[in-house]
Amino acid sequence: MSATPTDLPEFTIWPDLARRANGGSVVWATDESFAERENLIRTPEPAFDPDEFGNKGKVYDGWETRRRRHDEIGQNDAAIVRLGIPGQIKGIVVDTAWFTGNFPPQFAVYGLTCDELRTGEEIAALPDSAWTTLVPVTDAQGDHKHFFEIAPTGETAERRFTHVKLEMIPDGGIARIRVHGQPVPDPRFLGCTIDLASVENGARVTDCTNMFYSRPDHIIALGRSRNMGEGWENARRRDDSNDSVTVQLAGEGRVRWIELDTSYFVFNAPGDIKVTGLTDTGEEIELVAKTGTLPDTRHRFLISDPLEGESGPTPVVAVRVDVYPDGGISRLRVWGDLTEEGRRSIEDRW
Ranges for the Allantoicase domain (predicted)? Predict the structure, then answer.
């Protein structure tokens, strides 16, 4: 059975570097006769309709290969995922949801660092010695989430990966692969004002009061949301409090302007919002005073820091967005400049 949110290991709080919404792509697979390889990195949890059949048989929300026969016996199927956001891998989830009589007996996961632009076929042609074992050959269970935490120390934990290879031994179906980790951006591209809250640059959600309908880290994902489900939506409040989400920035920075997007939230946008910056000493800096918001609208706020000095606004390491009393937002952008300390922290990870 699939794990419930309270059962999830701690590493799953890190962003999924492989998911499609973060720019991930399945660049190669040995076979996808029954179900497409792209399903492996879809954001929604796997779904199943027992009555749905297609021209190739039962429809599965996952990746499924044909049964190996004759001269193919002894070979294994594999798929290669290019991480949308390269990074240090903290843990991996291999999910065989809904695959009960057709899951692989075993599987393994390997990692690769390759910054060159190469096709999936070129990546697949690399020798086995180029790959690092992330998950050793493991016996699989059907309709089950398999969790694998990467040891927090050592060469594998500190290495930045760009690709993972999922190997099925010998064939079968897997619904999803999640690759949770610390994004490691290329500091060469961070020489100007950047989105300090972007998951691609290394930001992550560290606290959230309520995520009843959808994950809060959606708000720092790449690109624009395509529907309400790709944002953060909390439950309806019936008390005198309010909801909030806190984002650890990519690095310490001076905030210049903020965008808060309520796209697709038509009848459930917040009534008001407030944005507070947090310094490395815990001091709170008001970035956007409590103000009314509009539904289905991109809001932009120029930052006027009352403590601003000659060098610019007060540096902050995190921002907290309060929504009053509740309501959903689709994206948060925090544009600013890295301080020397902020850049140094990113270079150290690189």
Answer: 23-183, 202-337
Mean local confidence (pLDDT), 219-225: 91
pLDDT digits (tens, 9 = 90+) for 319-347: 999 999 999 999 999 999 999 999 999 99
Contact 145, 97 (CB under 8 A): yes
Cβ atoms 197, 249 nearer than 8 A: yes
Coil vs helix vs strand at 268: coil
Q: What does the radius of gyration of the chain's CA atoms come to, in whole angstroms? A: 22
Nearest CA among 108, 109, 33 for reference residue 68? 33
Phi first, then psi, for residue 155 (nearest 5°) are: -60, -40
Give the closest residue to 182 by CA, choosing from 215, 135, 150: 150
Terminal Cα-to-Cα distance of the chain (whole angstroms): 38
**Domains defined along the chain, listed by start:** 5-183 (2.60.120.260), 187-349 (2.60.120.260)
Quick: pLDDT tens for 160-204: 999 999 999 999 999 999 999 999 988 877 767 899 999 999 999
Give per-residue pLDDT as tens, 271-282.
999 999 999 999
Write the single-letter amino acid at 153: T
Q: What is the pTM of this model?
A: 0.75
Which residues, 6 or more positions from 117, have their beta carbon under 8 angstroms from its beta carbon? none
- DSSP symbol at 73: T
